[in-house]
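Translate sequence into structure tokens.
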Amino acid sequence: MDTRKEGLPRNPHFAVQVALLFSACGDVFLIWPEAFPYGVAAFTKAQLLYIWAFGLRPLQLGLLLPIVLASLPFYCLLLLHLSSDMVLLLTAYTLALATMLWRGLARGGSARWGAQLFTISDTVLACNAFIQPLPHARLVVMATYYAAQFLISLSAFQSPRLKTN
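Result follows.
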């Protein structure tokens, strides 16, 4: 089979492995404040790979409205606290994260829970870093982040759940 005619083959195992590698790079970059943009870029690539791993079926367009209604107010609040050099970078990341959440919810199983926990982790991280320090933020961020990565990794070994509704 010539995969060039059909585009890239979808291999969720490989996509998740590479996403975990980009996430690890993102973790390293976030150690140094001056490397923050590189960390966000690495995590954006990880989110895009998770989207690829989750696939586009079932499409579940109905999930988009609740995601937008939950994400948009927080993003608007976040924008008020960002420096101008961070706006484009974090806008791109926010779109990638919201899309990953949509695809994880649509896929179901551990992808659903992993996507939700990743979103919670990043929401707490952004709030703590840019809006207002939160008590125990580091603990909440790390616990939800590593649980999310674990659950998303598990999803690569699960068949997508067929939804009838």
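Note: The helical segments are 3-6, 12-29, 36-54, 64-79, 84-107, 109-131, 137-155.
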